[in-house]
Design a protein that fits this description.
The chain is mainly alpha-helical and about 60 residues long. The protein contains two helices and no strands.
Amino acid sequence: MTDMPKRDITGECEGECKDQVSDLRKEQQEKLDAEEMEHSTAETPTVEHAKSRDNAPGDLGGHV
């Protein structure tokens, strides 16, 4: 621990210093932007029995 990099103490960079987190985040965002995604504005149907939490688990059947 006696040879701690100066950038960890003062924030100053000596030699090759890369901001790998920001670089990766930028790269991932560019990949997402390059993909063509279809944006749907259609509404989904309502599920009436899911509006209340009063029913016991398994009330409509299935596994609990």
